[in-house]
Amino acid sequence: IEETLVLVKPDGVARNLTGEILRRIEAKGYSLVDLRLVQADRELLAKHYEEHEGKPFYEPLIEFMQSGPTVAIRVAGNRVIEGFRSLAGTTDPTTAAPGTIRGDFGRDWGLKVQQNLVHGSDSVESAERELALWFG
Ligand code: GTP
Ligand code: MG
């Protein structure tokens, strides 16, 4: 059985959408294995987002991710990595399909596309690396 790391980012926690996001994960039939409320620091976020270092949105993203608590969730299920990304919708909340988390609730704040509520690991390798970072 596959596992993925889901994050409810600070915008999702601040907007009280954690329950709605957990509800969608559970309704799909995936299992919650572990869950923590984390105030992420720069060191953790630099590791989590190392693939984006140097990109124009990197610094605003790291700042934003420290703006409040994040809910980190270890989720298990058959093909859950691909499945959660499908539940989340595409990165840009304006064009994410209705019915997805980002499509239904994400808001576009101009250049701050990063406020798209959730993160989901994008491969088996990313999931292993990210789960080790957030859950040790
Ligand atoms: P995650 O599940 O959060 O990793 O999203 P993703 O895989 O859909 O996107 P990606 O890994 O490419 O980027 C990580 C995060 O950086 C995104 O979720 C956004 O928050 C932010 N991001 C990505 N691309 C852009 C962009 O072009 N502009 C801005 N402002 N933020 C971006
Ligand atoms: Mg990604």
TrEMBL record:
<dbReference type="InterPro" id="IPR034907">
    <property type="entry name" value="NDK-like_dom"/>
</dbReference>
<feature type="binding site">
    <location>
        <position position="57"/>
    </location>
    <ligand>
        <name>ATP</name>
    </ligand>
</feature>
<feature type="binding site">
    <location>
        <position position="91"/>
    </location>
    <ligand>
        <name>ATP</name>
    </ligand>
</feature>
<dbReference type="GO" id="GO:0004550">
    <property type="term" value="F:nucleoside diphosphate kinase activity"/>
</dbReference>
<keyword id="KW-0547">Nucleotide-binding</keyword>
<feature type="binding site">
    <location>
        <position position="116"/>
    </location>
    <ligand>
        <name>ATP</name>
    </ligand>
</feature>
<dbReference type="Pfam" id="PF00334">
    <property type="entry name" value="NDK"/>
</dbReference>
<keyword id="KW-0067">ATP-binding</keyword>
<dbReference type="InterPro" id="IPR001564">
    <property type="entry name" value="Nucleoside_diP_kinase"/>
</dbReference>
<dbReference type="InterPro" id="IPR036850">
    <property type="entry name" value="NDK-like_dom_sf"/>
</dbReference>
<protein>
    <recommendedName>
        <fullName>Nucleoside diphosphate kinase</fullName>
        <ecNumber>2.7.4.6</ecNumber>
    </recommendedName>
</protein>
<keyword id="KW-0546">Nucleotide metabolism</keyword>
<dbReference type="InterPro" id="IPR023005">
    <property type="entry name" value="Nucleoside_diP_kinase_AS"/>
</dbReference>
<keyword id="KW-0418">Kinase</keyword>
<comment type="similarity">
    <text>Belongs to the NDK family.</text>
</comment>
<keyword id="KW-0808">Transferase</keyword>
<feature type="binding site">
    <location>
        <position position="9"/>
    </location>
    <ligand>
        <name>ATP</name>
    </ligand>
</feature>
<feature type="active site" description="Pros-phosphohistidine intermediate">
    <location>
        <position position="119"/>
    </location>
</feature>
<feature type="binding site">
    <location>
        <position position="102"/>
    </location>
    <ligand>
        <name>ATP</name>
    </ligand>
</feature>
<feature type="binding site">
    <location>
        <position position="85"/>
    </location>
    <ligand>
        <name>ATP</name>
    </ligand>
</feature>
<feature type="domain" description="Nucleoside diphosphate kinase-like">
    <location>
        <begin position="1"/>
        <end position="136"/>
    </location>
</feature>
